[in-house]
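Much of our argument rests on the idea that a fold can be written as discrete symbols. The record that follows shows the chain in one-letter code together with its fold in token form.
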Amino acid sequence: MTVRPRRIKKRPTRISYEEFRTAAEAGCCGGAAGEMVTELAVLAARQVTGTGPVAAINQLLSRHDGTPVHGVWHHVLVGELLLTCLRNAGYPVSEELIDEVIDRGRQIPGGACGFLGTCGALASAASAYAVVLGATPVAGEARERLLAFQAAMQARLVQIGGSRCCKKSAYLALEMGREALAEVGFELPREELTGQCRFFAENETCDGPECPYFPTRAR
């Protein structure tokens, strides 16, 4: 075995938390603008009457309302819509539980996918799943189920690969969230996601046909 000479890399300059937040907000429409869009999205999601979270998120974040394609509102909407649709389907989901998932989502910083290794949209779906399971840090079996679900979503996102896309993450989270909820007795209607993205033209880093949700996949 040949041992290659070790190259010592210069340690990167540490940044402050404030600089971290500024960078995250610049890349993910956070700050006051992100908070405003999040608040509007949360209020609109409360008015959803259907049981399909994918149809709901497409309607709420359509290109016609000027909402940026990326943003911290995905950290809230995914979980909120999963629980709202469960409530609309007749399951015992209270307003307090929906509020809890919304509050958890608001705590996920912009840019978490690239700074913390945890996509906010996936974490939002995991939060909804945690509420349904009754998971807590000390609830053994429920906590294990929750961690396995989050890990499965992360692995799937890595498998899909490509550049940052909040819509891709949201679709994946809603798709896998529906499957996971059905396994524990909370069923929502199956929605077709392959080739269904409506937002590709707005995303400067869209992966095109490489993405399973890109329109040409439906042909």
